[in-house]
Structures are given as structure tokens and as C-alpha cells.
Amino acid sequence: MTQLREDLFANAKRLAAAKEEALGALVDATETIADLNDQLTAAQAHWGQKLQAAKKAGYTDQELTTIGFDLTGGTPKPGRGSGRRNTKKDNSTTPAASGSAAPASSPVTGSTT
To answer: What residue numbers bound the domain in which 47 lies?
Structure first.
């Protein structure tokens, strides 16, 4: 083979190896997301069972909401410092308070692993 031909094939092999490595990382991240989604589904089902047990024990939706659980979306969101402790605020001195709210969640765009 000529030197040019060898160089071209060597470059192509390096590019293919880099692409394969990137694809492997993407597959790993995809598998991680799938595993976490499975775990989340199982945890949500478990939470639903515990919610029903709490209601059977006598808690009402209102009481659970007052405690800090967000029952409106069907997913568990216990209040950890950002619950509904003080929902009445005087926002008259803060002009930014009337701005649009941020989205409830943002999509997962990738992994750093």
C-alpha cells in the first residue's frame, strides 16, 4: 500500500473507533435511563399503595395536602422545605412576581457519564 492509502485507512479506523466509543456511551446512558424509569414506576406503585393505606387509616386528601404532599399530579412530592407552608405572600412590592412561572419539569437531555 502507498503511504496515502495507509493514512486514509488509519484515519477512517480512528474515526470509527471514536464513533463506536460515543455510541457505547449513549447506549449505556439509555440503559441507565430505562433502569431508572423501571425503578421510578415501581416506587410510584409502592407510594400509591402507601397512600391508600394512609387514607384507610383515616387521613383525608386535605390533611395530606396540609402536611405537605402534592396529590394533584398523581405523583408523590413530599414537602422538603418548599412545601405549602406559607402560600399567602404580599407580592405587591415585587414586580417580578407577576412574571410567568418556570415549567414544572425539564426533559432529560443527556448524561455526563
So the answer is: 3-76
**3-state DSSP percent of the chain in helix, strand and coil, to 5:** 60, 0, 40
Q: Tell me, yes or no, if the pTM score tops 0.70.
A: no
Virtual torsion, Cα 88, 91, 96, 97, nearest 10 deg: 20
pLDDT score, position 15 = 95
Confirm whether 84 is domain-assigned.
no
Query: Within a domain: residue 88?
Result: no
Q: What pLDDT, on a 0 to 100 scale, did the predictor assign at position 14?
A: 96
63 within 8 A of 31, measured Cβ to Cβ: no
Domains contained in the chain, number: 1
Instruction: Tell me the three-class secondary structure of the chain, residue by residue.
Output: CCHHHHHHHHHHHHHHHHHHHHHHHHHHHHHHHHHHHHHHHHHHHHHHHHHHHHHHCCCCHHHHHHHCCCCCCCCCCCCCCCCCCCCCCCCCCCHHHHCCCCCCCCCCCCCCC
